[in-house]
Design brief:
about 260 residues, about 0% strand
Amino acid sequence: MMKKMRVGLVLVLVLVLAMLLIGCSQQVAPETETETDVDIAKHVPNTTKEKLILVFHTANMSEIDKFYEGLQYAYYFDMRTKMNEDMYLATVLTEVGSDLIGVRENLNYSCDALPSIFSYYREHGGYNTDGRCSGHDANQYLIGSKVYSNRLGNGDVDSGDGYTYRGGGYAQTTGKYNYSIITDGINHRVGSKFTPSDFANHITNTYIANLGGLGYWLQVGASDCTTMNCVTDKWNYYTDSREERNTNYNWIKEM
């Protein structure tokens, strides 16, 4: 009888141990913050809406709201200090003015200007029909499609890529290749699903233009800068607006 009890006790102990082991093996590991979770999170920027209203004084409140919405992702574009944000604001103010609207490249060229500016028209002609002269407006779609065709990642003239991916936004991003790089970076960090063409076609929207500007800021490594001249070198080296950029920055940083 005692032997049977010992065997039974052993079996019970084995069953208990097995259940404990099974329980341990089924424990769920603590949840960790995934890359996607990080990408779609928002951070409160150093810049307030009140400051944006002062800087971009001709922008309506709707544009201020859109810009501020995009600025909440600035952290993930390596813009993490007040100095970074102030330099970015000074850059945007100089590039597009105080209304915050993301501009598109103006292709309203005269007939005479086209061959003097673009090699395409010097080599292929057509400037008298595409340009603005003799009582007709410039055909901006054709101009863009031609002068930017077969370069910067664009297709041929018939693809229309040159016009779709003409300069746009706060950084005047140009070319399908450059729009693709910026768009991929934004999708990765914000959790969006923009296509390059969708992004390019909506680049005048303040929210989209701001994301494009943040993407370009990251691409050129502007956060490494400690002076406005350094940011300008990275953003637009050949600009003649250095004095204006520095004046804008010195004004903004004191707010």
